[in-house]
Amino acid sequence: MLNGPWPGRGLAAAMLCLSLAVVGLTTAPHGGGEAETPESSQTPVMLPDGGYATGTPSRQAQQILAQLAPIFSSHDFDSAVKLRDARQYALEAVRLAPESARAHRVLGHALMEETRYEQAEAAFSRAVELDPKDQESRAGLREANRLARLVDSLPLDLSNGRSLFRLAEVPRSGRPGVFALVGYPAEDGSYYAVRAHCFMWDGSRYRESYRTPNIGYKHDEGPNEMGFAHLWVGDLQRNGRPQVLLISGWVGADWIPMVVDIFETRKTGMRQVLHIGSTAGAERVDLDRDGRPEVQVTNYVGATVTHAEMGLWRDVYRYDGRRYVRANARFREFSRGQLDSMLSTAEDHPDDWDTLKRVAQAYRDLGQPGKAAPYEKKARRQQVEAVQ
Fold this sequence. Notes:
Layout: E1 2-3, E2 16-19, E3 45-46, E4 52-53, H1 57-74, H2 80-96, H3 101-113, H4 117-130, H5 135-153, E5 163-170, E6 177-185, E7 191-201, E8 206-211, E9 216-219, E10 226-234, E11 243-251, E12 258-266, E13 269-278, E14 282-285, E15 294-301, E16 311-319, E17 324-326, H6 332-348, H7 353-365, H8 369-387
Parallel strand pairs: 1-14
Antiparallel strand pairs: 2-10, 3-4, 5-6, 6-7, 7-8, 7-9, 10-11, 11-12, 12-13, 14-15, 15-16, 16-17
Helix pairs in contact: 1-2, 1-3, 2-3, 3-4, 3-5, 4-5, 6-7, 7-8
């Protein structure tokens, strides 16, 4: 969904990498009940990698936990499905080995990832009861308790089926700001509209300082598409003003339409510094290698061609001190690559007005308006003819 090496997770590293998930608690791994299982004296249990755990229930639980360990250590939750399944497998490990402190601890971590803080408290508490010397479970219990109390302190209405999908703390002087993604259910319950809320501490309590309109929708289930929203927090521009990066959209069979929003912290709240759509992905780049990333947004090109024949056009947005602005012209090597790509596409589709417009734009980015003009003229003519 989001390409490129966005910084790692954790407030200690000034970055949170959070994936959206809306799911209900269940004790069976997703899809595990329908697959055929090999014969064994013990009922085999499906593993996260698609294999089967065999042996005693305790041994099966340890095999599940061994495969979950690298997922949790890397926070490799790149989809709602993977996050949901990780939690379901942790629940299965608890069912198989209810006296295992490790199983309860892993379940606590899974619930934390889904912002189920009160349920995570219960899981960590049970792990500590089983192993009072388990420092990781004790630390998890303290953090779950802290975040549960933080949610309680927010002026956030979670009644009528509304769900807290993600929560991120925005570092600032004094108490941190809080950025929350909240799902608002449709009347038929088939999907959630997602909105972002920002809360700032005013000296006595948290107040809402910013709210987005609907930024995306999350399907409970869907054969070909699923809504998503990802949230990162960090000082991307190294200016002491942490930024919140929000990616939301759909995953379809051939398309990944999404919206990229970046908000920057101010003394009084949040300020939107980028809002841009994309049909083919977004990534962080550092074209001038100054340690302050640009945002590269990719879109499909081609108004009169099939999806398989479409080209790809990339725009780069650079922070100018106040907001992110389009900056293709600043990077000549990048713009030359764009021109070569569009000229190649135009050779195959010389009458596609969308491709011709991109060729013209590439020439303008390179400071060659004279070469851009004939492509612009032809593009306008072809576009008019296409409408008639």
